[in-house]
Amino acid sequence: MAGVSIVIPVYNREQYLPTLFRSLSAVDYEELEVLLVDNGSTDDSLLLCRSFAEEAPMVVRVCAETRRGANCARNLGLMQCRTEWVYFFDSDDLLTPSFLKEIMPRVADCDMVAFPVMQQRGDDLIPRAFRPSASPASQILSLTLSTQSMLFRTDFLRRIGGWNERLQIWQDWELGIRVLLHRARILWLPDSAYHHIRIHPDSITGASFCQRRDVIRQTLEIVSHELHEPRDLRALYLRTCIVNGQLQRQGGHLLKESYRLGWFTRLLGTILRSYAYCGGRGAWRIALLVC
Fold it and tell me: Do 91 and 166 touch, CB atoms closer than 8 A?
């Protein structure tokens, strides 16, 4: 079996760590190590991590990253990783015990394995939208590749630069785009959804678009400099229009839509912005029809 490291950034998550640790202890895989990277916690998170390392049924290493940001913590874990494969998880979510035992026998000669996850909102647990595609345009619009849906060959992730430490939001979205731009060999496993990814008020995912406007703008600008193909730039324009509709619905200021595109794409962007403003769901699915 190939060894796997699970890297988990931790910042002020003492209320969630006990349930995370129980799910980690239940993971059924022999060649496993866990790297818990504390990112400057001011509560008892670091103490809890060290206690878990002493009693865990697998190798657990506790690291400290003083530079703030989940991507800085993830990259420290990537640098310290000693295994062939690396997987990133969040400190407020729950792992499926069997996922590595089910996935690892199938990895063969790929750079990455991609699979769906389950999202939990309150008592509701539903599969997150998952659209297997090697097209960067599809990732731009659908965000199929998320943090917990990607298992990497360690050398590949290091080779493409790891996580972008300039980003404060949508880090997995950008990484998924970069993975596809580098033409990664991906094993797609769309039939089994794993884990409980919890959406709650303390998570970045749960914040409003208006609260995140500036960091969204920064992420869109960074991604725009990575793209060169017209199809990908068209997809990013339409994604921006959808975000603007959601911002407008919440009373926020709109982002700049500064792409040189044809009249049809601009018309579609206006329609999608209005659709999102009116509360329409799944605008990205409409955009995919022309990308």
Answer: no
C-alpha angle 61/12/169, rounded to 5°? 95
Q: What is the DSSP letter of 7?
A: E
Q: Count the Cβ atoms, other than its own, within 10 Å of residue 49.
A: 26
**CA distances from residue 282 to 42, 133, 142, 288 in whole angstroms, order as listed:** 39, 17, 9, 10
Six-digit token string for 243:
């975000």
Report the alpha-carbon distance of residue 79 to residue 81 in Å, rounded: 6
Q: How many residues does the chain have?
A: 291
User: Alpha helix locations (H) across the chain?
Assistant: 17-25, 45-55, 70-80, 99-103, 136-142, 154-159, 171-181, 213-226, 230-249, 263-277, 283-288
Query: The tokens of 77 are what?
Result: 């874990």
- CB atoms < 10 A from the CB of 126, how many? 10
From CA 72, how far away is CA 171, in angstroms rounded? 11
Per-residue pLDDT of the chain (291 residues; tens, 9 = 90+): 589 999 999 999 999 999 999 999 999 999 999 999 999 999 999 999 999 999 999 999 999 999 999 999 999 999 999 999 999 999 999 999 999 999 999 998 999 999 999 988 777 788 888 999 999 999 999 999 999 999 999 999 999 999 999 999 999 999 999 999 999 999 999 998 999 898 765 554 545 667 788 889 899 999 999 999 999 999 999 999 999 998 888 876 666 766 678 888 989 999 999 999 999 989 999 999 888
pTM passes above 0.90: yes
